[in-house]
Specification:
The protein has 140 residues and is of the alpha+beta class. The two termini are 29 Å apart. Helices cover 29% and strands 18% of the residues. A 5-stranded antiparallel sheet has the order 1-2-3-5-4, with helices on one face. Strand 1 and strand 2 form a beta hairpin. The structure holds zinc ion. The site of zinc ion (ZN) has 6 residues, from helix 1.
Length: 140
Amino acid sequence: MTSDPNCIFCKIIQGQIPSTRVYEDEKHLAFMDINPLNRGHCLMIPKDHHPTIHDIPDDLLAGLMIAAKKLAGRVVRALGAQGINLIQSNGRAANQIIDHFHLHLVPRWRPDDLPVANWDLKPGAPEEIATAAEAIRQAT
Ligand SMILES: [Zn+2]
């Protein structure tokens, strides 16, 4: 089990910092977010310390998504949510605060006016979309 002694989520996994756990298996842990966007907002994390999506092993990520699917169903059924967002951020520019891979599960009810997946649709410049697409296709 990889761990970072300075990581708050690793401390939660090891029980050094209390958390309100809602799901746990051999490789994953989910607990309530202490700064919830909505009722039932929780976090799913791998028990191994990996900072971002660029670092987490593929098989661990795949298993985490399956665990998140299970938990998302439970959250929706338990709280009668009308929808649920799964949000995952990487890097400061993306507002990642804790450098331990985590997936936010945010239950939704209309109208909750949360600033989550709630942007206005504005058509982009076709040339800009095309050049970004070409850069992505060329990347390794
Ligand atoms: Zn950690």
